[in-house]
């Protein structure tokens, strides 16, 4: 009766096994630091421009939308703190993670998927290398380091985008935008603003690796794995965001 | 050829090995034993379980039941980590070569030397010398800095042979080394495999659907003086080639070339008479 649940449950179990092995082996030799730095470059430096662009426009748009509502209450000077809180708590981490999921989870899934279907993963195992150590862990570490950094950059550039609207359209002096925005931030905001991307990074990298390593069925399978990786990573990002959001709102 | 006692040593042994993927049976109670210095040619059509047999032999696939011994040690339930030392003594050529796209040809061939940690690490100039030697063996020393994507299918297999044999393992496994190649290139590849066998005195397990590949392995030897393969009378050359035929995961034939050619089994004869 519950047969339709078999596949997703089995897939989730396999995903947990892969995640468990990856997390368990993080501190175990051999470490492939060259691969870690190469992945940091691909994920972090490579994703910088798109993340900056998204950050800039989200800050810009939030400020525009907010300014109208705030003007009705004569509270235009509150735009800085509002944009800051929205960006740091929610949009910065989530939008950056979704962008990086689209860019990195798909990249990881297609690269590992191609390696799987052309027997390079088997060759790696046959030649004495554990694919978890060589492929999964470097991508996991690189994403976990780079995603929080990218989020900080997205937050900053988002604030800058908001400032342009506040300054030129709302005629708000720069101190009235930046000072209250800076003052509103609490420890709780900063922790969730950095913890979220850190957690999302594991979802993005491990989901990408999982679908890549599970690929079967030639080039068509690689395409399927790539799509699934992005969709599943995004869904889990939103679910985890809601869970973390609930925890932090209560703490606050 | 190796010492007489070495000939008796088992390099690969399957005992009632079965393996299935969901509903598909890949191996069905397969049993055989391969001795050191022996060549085995496994014939079978696509989906008959040839590749599964080869992957099970080095623990890339775990059997559902039965037992596997590799180089005298049982590997049936070994963990991945514990398999690495044994795998380092086995060379494998995967179907399309299995070369790492992101590494140059030289780095691909150097990979087993640099990553198989079975002893003291090898000095970089020694690695380079052995890589060049291995590539010269397959006459591809000029491709050292190229990437696999720049090579033809036949050249990729040749680099794969160089990578499989660079550590001079006592057992080399070949998965359909001639699949998808034109007949001339295919013969070149098999000639190289025979040369590798005779020069380095290795045991070979070759999985293929082409009977001609097995014929060359069984009846030709590499002559180091002329640098070519020469035909030798079967049975008089110290060569020991055993043919195996697989059908839907079962081993339906095991024996010499003569026995294979005399077989009346309709499936077996399909490979021989064409």
Task: Describe this protein's structure.
The complex is a heterodimer of chains A (252) and B (274). Chain A is mostly helical. In chain A, 87% of the residues lie in helices and 0% in strands. Chain A contains eight helices and no strands. In chain A, helix 3 runs antiparallel to helix 5 and helix 7 packs antiparallel against helix 8 (218-251). Chain B has helices at 4-8, 50-57, 80-87, 105-115, 124-137, 153-165, 183-200, 211-219, 257-262, 266-272, and strands at residues 10-21, 24-35, 39-44, 65-70, 73-74, 90-93, 171-175, 203-208, 220-223, 228-231, 241-247, 250-255. In chain B, the strands form three sheets. Chain B has a six-stranded mixed β-sheet with strand order 6-7-8-3-11-12, with helices on both faces. In chain B, strands 2-1-4-5 form a four-stranded antiparallel β-sheet. Chain B has a two-stranded antiparallel ribbon with strand order 9-10. In chain B, a hairpin with a 4-residue loop joins strand 9 (220-223) and strand 10. Chain B is globular. The two termini of chain B are 33 Å apart. The A-B interface holds A 30, 114-115, 118-120, 122-130 and B 55, 58, 60, 80-81, 84, 87-88, 90, 92, 94-96, 98-101, 111-112, 115-118, 163.
């Amino acid at each position: 009766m519950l047969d339709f649940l078999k596949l997703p449950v089995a897939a989730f179990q396999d995903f947990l096994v892969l995640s468990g092995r990856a997390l368990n082996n993080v501190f175990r030799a051999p470490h492939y630091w060259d691969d870690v730095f190469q992945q940091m470059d691909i994920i972090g430096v490579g994703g910088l421009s798109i993340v900056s662009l998204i950050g800039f426009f989200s800050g810009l748009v939030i400020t525009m939308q907010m300014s109208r509502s705030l003007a009705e209450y004569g509270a235009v000077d509150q735009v800085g703190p509002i944009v800051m809180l929205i960006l740091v708590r929610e949009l910065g981490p989530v939008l950056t993670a979704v962008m990086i999921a689209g860019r990195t989870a798909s990249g990881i899934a297609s690269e590992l998927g191609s390696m799987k279907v052309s027997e390079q993963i088997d060759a790696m195992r046959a030649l004495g290398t554990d694919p978890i150590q060589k492929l999964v862990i470097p991508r996991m570490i690189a994403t976990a380091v780079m995603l929080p950094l990218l989020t900080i950059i997205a937050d900053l550039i988002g604030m800058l985008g908001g400032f342009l609207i506040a300054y030129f359209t709302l005629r708000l002096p720069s101190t009235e935008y930046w000072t209250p925005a800076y003052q509103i931030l609490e420890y709780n905001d900063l922790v969730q603003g950095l913890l979220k991307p850190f957690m999302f990074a594991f979802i993005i990298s491990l989901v990408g690796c999982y679908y890549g390593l599970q690929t079967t069925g030639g080039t068509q399978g690689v395409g399927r794995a790539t799509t699934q990786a992005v969709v599943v990573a995004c869904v889990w990002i939103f679910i985890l965001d809601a869970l973390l959001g609930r925890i932090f709102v209560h703490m606050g | 050829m190796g010492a007489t006692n070495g000939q008796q040593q088992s390099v690969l042994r399957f005992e009632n090995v079965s393996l299935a993927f969901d509903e598909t049976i890949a191996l069905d109670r397969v049993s055989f034993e391969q001795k050191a210095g022996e060549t085995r040619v496994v014939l079978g059509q696509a989906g008959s379980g040839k590749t599964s047999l080869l992957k099970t032999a080095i623990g890339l696939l775990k059997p559902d039941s039965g037992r596997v011994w590799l180089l005298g040690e049982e590997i049936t339930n070994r963990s991945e980590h514990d398999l690495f030392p044994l795998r380092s003594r086995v060379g494998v050529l995967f179907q399309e070569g299995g070369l790492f796209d992101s590494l140059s040809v030289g780095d691909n061939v150097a990979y087993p030397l640099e990553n198989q940690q079975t002893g003291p690490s090898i000095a970089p100039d020694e690695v380079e010398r052995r890589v060049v030697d291995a590539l010269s063996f397959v006459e591809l020393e000029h491709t050292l800095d190229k990437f696999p994507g720049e090579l033809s299918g036949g050249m990729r297999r040749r680099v794969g042979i160089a990578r499989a044999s660079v550590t001079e393992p006592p057992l080399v496994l070949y998965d359909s080394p001639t699949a998808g190649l034109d007949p001339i290139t295919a013969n070149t590849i098999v000639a190289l495999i025979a040369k590798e066998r005779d020069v380095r005195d290795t045991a070979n397990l070759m999985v293929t659907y082409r009977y001609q590949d097995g014929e060359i392995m069984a009846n030709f030897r590499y002559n180091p003086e002329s640098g070519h393969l020469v035909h030798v009378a079967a049975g008089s050359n110290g060569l020991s080639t055993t043919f195996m035929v697989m059908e839907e995961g079962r081993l339906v034939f095991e024996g010499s070339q003569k026995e294979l050619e005399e077989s009346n089994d309709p499936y077996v004869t399909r490979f021989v008479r064409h």
